[in-house]
Specification:
753 residues; Rossmann fold; nucleotide-binding; kinase; N-acylmannosamine kinase activity; phosphoprotein; ATPase_NBD
Length: 753
Amino acid sequence: METSMYLCKESCCLGPHELYFKKLSKRKDQVMEKNGNNRKLRVCVATCNRADYSKLAPIMFGIKTEPEFFELDVVVLGSHLIDDYGNTYRMIEQDDFDINTRLHTIVRGEDEAAMVESVGLALVKLPDVLNRLKPDIMIVHGDRFDALALATSAALMNIRILHIEGGEVSGTIDDSIRHAITKLAHYHVCCTRSAEQHLISMCEDHDRILLAGCPSYDKLLSAKNKDYMSIIRMWLGDDVKCKDYIVALQHPVTTDIKHSIKMFELTLDALISFNKRTLVLFPNIDAGSKEMVRVMRKKGIEHHPNFRAVKHVPFDQFIQLVAHAGCMIGNSSCGVREVGAFGTPVINLGTRQIGRETGENVLHVRDADTQDKILQALNLQFGKQYPCSKIYGDGNAVPRILKFLKSIDLQEPLQKKFCFPPVKENISQDIDHILETLSALAVDLGGTNLRVAIVSMKGEIVKKYTQFNPKTYEERINLILQMCVEAAAEAVKLNCRILGVGISTGGRVNPQEGIVLHSTKLIQEWNSVDLRTPLSDTLHLPVWVDNDGNCAAMAERKFGQGKGLENFVTLITGTGIGGGIIHQHELIHGSSFCAAELGHLVVSLDGPDCSCGSHGCIEAYASGMALQREAKKLHDEDLLLVEGMSVPKDEAVSALHLIQAAKLGNAKAQSILRTAGTALGLGVVNILHTMNPSLVILSGVLASHYIHIVKDVIRQQALSSVQDVDVVVSDLVDPALLGAASMVLDYTTRRIH
């Protein structure tokens, strides 16, 4: 990643990162954790540039807070020590780290030959340093040419290597360097599921891979600065408003320097035309950077009233700048990785990051060969706000990495072992030598209750929370946020990693925007409600929202009897009647998100009134509300109760009393149930004739009472060509919660293939 360095601090105070990680430090036993060692682990952290320090610093602070377990040596080399790139080693000193060694390893020239010569110079100087420090393990980050020199030296000197961010794919020469370091490294800390799978596919030892997330996210997700406007004004001017400026960070692509310089020129022209205040950071030290700086100066960017050109920004301030920007543009990995944590729009230019996983906030302009293309992208992205993404971390990477370091057994043979195919799945090393359960937070908004559950990838409900659904919007949204925050905190204790939030709610929903357009009468004050934004902003997780009938269908597709089927229909029989349609493996929403309102299929022209305003709908006959209405009529006429039945005075008559009376032989109750079942059966016949699915699944509390009547109606009324279609009762206990979870888990599965 190419971001800027950490904020300076007064020498007499603790740095912000150190304060943060002090909170993680707890009282520990005097005995070293079981790792085969009887002494402190000597860890050498080598940092080469402003980018890798933003990832390594959180780990360094974590190591520093546990002196009973670790000794820390810091080696600084590369562009840290060059004035043109800001002498960023000072940031390390101001973060109160003792720099054991400074190595001047950069050969100036900023071309391909200079990069090779710099690697050679580092290889000449590093052996003396490593012989003197004698570390047990060296931590190396990323994919820079300096890091390759570090890994090569350590490997040849029999020093164990922990590689941060291996397994990722970006799309340039960095991939080759990153994978080369992976083959030299003994231990691996990766940030995403895809990266973990890539490492496994590269034959790395499963037991030496930790899926931890990106260390920088520990800082990003805890960053709260109410005075962010003062930071914005300091770097961009007093007249700049939040979300009304651009951050630009573009680097040369070493495999096509001429094209990357031309693209940078087009980017600057587009930014000048776009006429918004822009903070431009100088490029890194790769081949071609000198030419890019010449382009900036040729266009007068350093003196243009709309531009502020800087060599680096302290990291604490940089994250506030990108968090409140109207857009970020360029080809920095920061844009596709870290900025997603804030939902800030990003325009990624060219091929430099094209292979990386991204949130929906990133718009790729692969062939940025005209100014108009870049301008169009700016018009599309500027000022938008996307859901916050946690693809690259959940804020708990450093504690995992420290536990991983403590588990390293120095008595084990140094020689690497490779695990050649066949490759096992999902068995990477995690915090306590067990895999965290990939899970979703599922929310079910019913007419009576509000439920939140932690649901695993296999459909197991790990833990469920239930509260009465408040009557007002404000109370309801606050309760949802409170329950989700508590569940997310509990998930950490249960060793569950939450991938996102899925919400099932009654009414018509726009799932693309995460908005409840209008709800049923059972849920009051629930029209035009944006559910995605407050949950995403609070939890820093992606959020999906859909209608409860659609969620039931998705639950059947992933966990139930619809699994593997191309076409099927789910009908929910509960307080109301709803449903969902799966066609060619996909859920059908319709042009106005009104598909599968199956409860409002009309089965009689002169039937009873329905809550939708029409009459003769299935819901007017077969819903729990309809049965309750008929039960009350019988009760008022003293025709409901039979021998063996009673209804306490303080208990309302319900559909369950009607069903109980029918089971005990009440002929009128039996007749009402037959009529309701027949209405439902006619609706199913219409579905069979319209959709021709391969399966119909009846779900909900009333499904088992209707199934036989529905099958009878199909035999009597349906065309012979569809009479063989099976109708079954769902075997899922909580289809709404499972369906809400499936939105999260299906998306995650697709993302990581």
